[in-house]
Automatic annotation (TrEMBL):
The lineage of its organism: Eukaryota, Fungi, Dikarya, Ascomycota, Pezizomycotina. GO terms for molecular function: monooxygenase activity. It comes from Trematosphaeria pertusa. InterPro entries: FAD-binding_Monooxygenases, FAD/NAD-bd_sf, FAD/NAD-binding_dom. The keyword Lipoprotein does not apply. This is FAD/NAD(P)-binding domain-containing protein.
Length: 537
């Protein structure tokens, strides 16, 4: 069985979130025997780990779900942007339909893996001393498998409750009338702050960089309206693969200054009203390429947001007149009354770019200006060693025994954002140098998952033992990823997209910035041309 000390299987998948489950389902249909190793206690990947207050997906349903008819047919949601509890229920539903759980070993963390060329098998080791042998190793570990904890002295000294967002206790933390500190203003920090503020005595947000957050426009959904729409789902899912980011909308075919100022203002307004990422991903097509166009969008955002904050000090910290970075080159969070909430007298925002946190004490946080603030609960929403951290942390070694963490020490090399030279028959998805951070998760996973499944089918049909990317192909892919990114405004901003959120991490574009359709085309070409860029044996 899945937990046996010496597991043998065709395919070992690591991770039971959107990616791992999709791969297992598709490969089973082709007759591959698959097992999943999952470090957590349940299905759902990030939705298993993320149970912090307010954890919620920023992509609308039904875009944020599988395109598999057997799964979507009779499933409906209670709101446009569901919270983690409902997403966990969704994964139970997926399990009922696809029967995943019986082939998953939970609480099973991979700590070592190497491909043995003579037997053409991966040998995979777990933390508790088990060994698995598999022809294929598929990594579906997501882009946020390794948490980032800043190195402040005293982190373990705090006497109140202190938790990283993705280690939030399942039972929750009572914040009623408590003094809550939230450190970090990524998607996570914004969500924790606005949710805890509903019951906490006070919320203080420690902000290094303002989140250029957009109105979510949350809406309850009825079962009837969703069931009525089901006939359109096949079309919706087909269309999402034709858009840049795998959404239901795309950048419009117009540049910012093609419109008159009035028309532009009206268009921006409409994006805000529709809510979600429309102001980001359905904006003018030069938004992420042209600094001046980007500034116009920023100015609109700042005008709208500043009007919601009456306290001038808070207004300048949360929505400064001068942009902290080009709009959309860091991930905007979707907010619900975030600005009105922070504007209230009992809540506060501290600019830790000006006065960094220098120490955690038994009772609170000390900043560089010597100020000490006391708290009962501290939420660390400081993010992740994103995109590459998880894979570097699994004890993976190439055929010569060189750790992946060494190979990726000074930069990241992959081929097609799904394979690595020296790691035969290993495929990964939703990771480095794929569309990952610039796409809707399920769309990216299905695009890459289908490619991986087709590649494995081809290997089997053509009786090939293994394929291994060449170093030249990797160099070419790295150049491609860089070249696509260099045309955009992304490289000018310090973000986790660029590896710039973790001290000492090489600064480089970690994601493929050409959009899903172009990405899919490039990957298909490699496969259709007889495994171009791979050696096969
Ligand atoms: P993010 O987006 O990486 O946000 C982390 C936040 O923590 C961000 O505001 C950082 O400021 C801040 N941070 C990190 N380290 C420090 C230190 N040392 N001092 C002060 N502030 C710090 O993580 P999330 O969990 O919010 O979101 C991750 C992704 O998951 C998200 O994009 C979605 O796709 C889902 P900074 O901006 O670097 O100045």
């Amino acid at each position: 069985d899945t937990y046996s000390k010496n597991l043998k299987t065709d395919v070992l998948i690591v991770g039971a979130g959107f990616g791992g489950i999709y791969l297992m389902h598709k490969l089973r249909q082709l007759g591959f025997q698959c097992k999943i190793y999952e470090a957590g206690k349940g299905l759902g990947g990030i939705w298993h780990w993320n149970c912090y207050p307010g954890a919620r997906v920023d992509t609308q349903v039904p875009i944020y779900e599988y395109s598999l008819p057997e799964v979507w047919k009779d499933w409906t949601w209670s709101e446009r942007y569901p919270g983690f509890a409902e997403l966990r229920k969704y994964f139970e539903h997926v399990d009922q339909k696809l029967g995943i759980r019986k082939d998953v070993a939970f609480d099973t963390r991979v700590v070592g893996a190497q491909f043995d060329k003579p037997s053409a098998k991966w040998i995979v080791e777990t933390e508790d001393g088990r060994t698995a042998k598999a022809r294929y190793l598929l990594l579906a570990t997501g882009f946020a498998a390794k948490r980032h904890f800043p190195g402040w002295p005293g982190l373990d000294r705090f006497k109140g409750e202190i938790h990283h967002s993705s280690f939030w206790p399942d039972a929750g933390v009572d914040v009623k009338d408590k003094r809550v500190a939230v450190i970090g203003t990524g998607s996570t920090g914004v969500q924790i702050a606005q949710e805890t503020a509903k019951t906490a005595g006070s919320v203080t947000v420690f902000q290094r960089t303002p989140n250029l957050a957009l109105p979510m426009q949350q809406k309850p959904l009825t079962r009837e309206e969703q069931m009525d729409r089901k006939a359109q789902y096949p079309e919706i899912y087909k269309n999402r693969m034709t858009t840049f980011a795998g959404f239901q909308y795309d950048f419009i075919d117009k540049n910012t200054y093609d419109d008159t100022p009035e028309a532009r203002e009206a268009f921006y307004e409409k994006c805000f009203e529709n809510g979600g990422f429309e102001f980001w991903l359905a904006n003018y097509k030069d938004l992420l390429f042209d600094a001046e166009a980007n500034r116009a969008a920023y100015d609109f955002w700042a005008k709208k947001t500043r009007a919601r904050i009456s306290d001038p000090r808070k207004r300048d910290i949360l929505a400064p007149v001068e942009p902290p970075h080009a709009f959309g080159t860091k991930r905007p969070s979707l907010e619900q009354n975030y600005y009105e909430m922070l504007d209230r007298a009992e809540n506060d925002v501290v600019d830790i770019k000006k006065t960094p946190i220098v120490e955690v004490t038994e009772t609170g946080l000390k900043t560089a200006d010597g100020k000490h603030r006391e708290f009962d609960v501290v939420a660390l929403a400081t993010g992740f060693d994103s995109v590459t951290g998880g894979m570097k942390n699994m004890g993976l070694k190439d055929v010569d025994g060189v750790p992946l963490s060494e190979k990726w020490k000074t930069g990241t090399w992959s081929y097609l954002g799904m394979t690595c030279a020296g790691f035969p028959n290993m495929f990964f998805l939703y990771g480095a140098q794929g569309p990952t951070a610039f796409s809707n998760g399920p769309s990216c996973v299905e695009c890459q998952g289908d490619w991986i499944v087709d590649a494995m089918k081809k290997l089997r049909d053509e009786d090939i033992q293994y394929c291994d990317a060449t170093r030249e192909a990797e160099e070419g892919w790295r150049r491609r990823v860089t070249e696509l990114s260099d045309k955009t405004l992304f490289p000018g901003t310090s973000s986790w997209y660029m590896g710039a959120n973790v001290p000492g991490k090489p600064r480089e574009q970690l994601n493929y910035a050409g959009g899903i359709p172009l990405y899919e085309q490039e990957c298909r070409e490699a496969l259709d041309n007889g495994f171009r860029g791979f050696v096969t044996a």
